[in-house]
Amino acid sequence: MERVRINASRAYDVVIGRGVLDTVGDELSHLVKSRTVAIVADDVTYPLFGARTKASLESAGFYTCEYIIPHGEESKSAENYIRILEFLAERGLSRTDCLVALGGGVVGDLSGFVAASFLRGIPFVQIPTTLLAAVDSSVGGKCAINLQAGKNLAGAFYQPSVVLCDTEIIGSLPDDIFSEGMAEVIKYGAIRSEKVFGLIEDGARENLGELISECVRIKRDVVCEDEFDTGLRQLLNFGHTPAHAIERLSDFKISHGAAVAAGMCIMSRAAEKLGLCEAGISDEIEKLCKKFSLPTTAQFSAKDMFAVAMRDKKRALGKITLVIPRTRGESVLYTVSEEETEKFFALGLSEGE
Ligand code: GLY
């Protein structure tokens, strides 16, 4: 078992290891004064892990209640946000009571925003059940819901009290869900860690614990330097500007992980064509994405992707900050005009010269 300490505005541990789900009651009893713990899960994660979560909490003396949402991106909605707030109020949770998010990124992001705003903030625990949530969305305190106009447009920075990442759960994921998370793992390799490339090449499932720890350590370093996303943290958005456009243009039929893979390939191909990175880097990223059957491009036009990306929250004063991989394990922020962003998309979408 490994503990990675995240020294953000609220310091907390990310606990990584086999069976850590069953320690949630014990962990919480050292961290909070709660009597009641509300578990938010989805209709896939609750049947699989709800009983174990409840048993651990109840044997540590907590009362539990649960709110189950349908799985999928559509649940990250303003309607569910309000429903869960009303549920917590009806159940009479107080400011010292606690919310546990048991699920992937949708459950974690939605629950985090509920926890951040219910009674102006209650303690919150993340138990990621997907690789994507384990290495990315459960760590660092970003939480949000989607609005009609775009993804993650209402949210907060709200750090959890602890993150429990059970490698037995993540290791048992079916290949398609595992692969979605691998897109974010490849992202960490591309932006900051040559070691991640090596661990993936040697076998991602075999090296799972080490891969997750390495990604969480990278995220810790970035978040501790720029918790509120005003500079360095934007590195974590490698490939995400085209990815959010791809997700939305596909009506969310293309998953976040798949869209991130395509987005990273599009950005690195464009960067290479513009001479902004070492030759061969886009092939390396593409090869890793293909290893996990992830897409390496998208069937949308640069014009349509650009139009959707312009509604993305990350533009400021007509400028967009893109992430450019420079070499294996190193990337930089690169600020361009809106028009240049469309050019990046066009260059990256065409796979030839
Ligand atoms: N998922 C990107 C971030 O946490 O900043």
Overview of this protein structure:
With 353 residues, this protein is of the alpha/beta class. It has 2 domains: 170 residues, Rossmann fold, CATH 3.40.50.1970; 174 residues, Up-down Bundle (Dehydroquinate synthase-like, alpha domain). The protein is built from 14 helices and 12 strands. Strands 1-2-9-6-5-3-4 form a 7-stranded mixed sheet, with helices on both faces. The protein has a 3-stranded antiparallel sheet with strand order 10-11-12. Strand 7 and strand 8 form a beta hairpin. The longest helix has 18 residues. The radius of gyration is 20 Å and the shape is globular. The mean pLDDT is 95. The structure holds glycine. Glycine binds next to loops. Glycine (GLY) binds next to loops.
Give a short summary of the structure.
This protein is of the alpha/beta class and 353 residues long.
Main attributes?
seven-stranded mixed sheet; 353 residues; Dehydroquinate synthase-like, alpha domain; Rossmann fold; three-stranded antiparallel sheet; binds glycine; alpha/beta; globular
Task: Give the rounded overall mean pLDDT.
Answer: 95
> What is the assigned CATH homologous superfamily of the largest domain?
Dehydroquinate synthase-like - alpha domain
Overall geometry: globular
User: Structural class per helix/strand content?
Assistant: alpha/beta
According to DSSP, the number of beta strands is 12
Rounded to the nearest angstrom, the radius of gyration is 20 Å
What small molecules does this complex bind? Answer: glycine
In the residues, how many domains can be counted?
2
Strand order of the largest sheet: 1-2-9-6-5-3-4
| Amino- and carboxy-terminal Cα gap | 47 Å
- Would you tell me which CATH topology of the largest domain applies? Dehydroquinate synthase-like, alpha domain
| CATH class category name of the largest domain | Mainly Alpha
* Secondary-structure element series: EEHEHEHEHEHEEEHHHHHHHHEEEH
Main beta sheet strand tally, sense and closure: 7 strands, mixed
What percent of residues are in strands? Answer: 15-25%
- As a percent range, the share of helical residues equals 40-55%
Sequence stretches where pLDDT stays below 50 over 5 or more residues: none
Specify the CATH architecture of the largest domain: Up-down Bundle
Tally of DSSP helical segments: 14
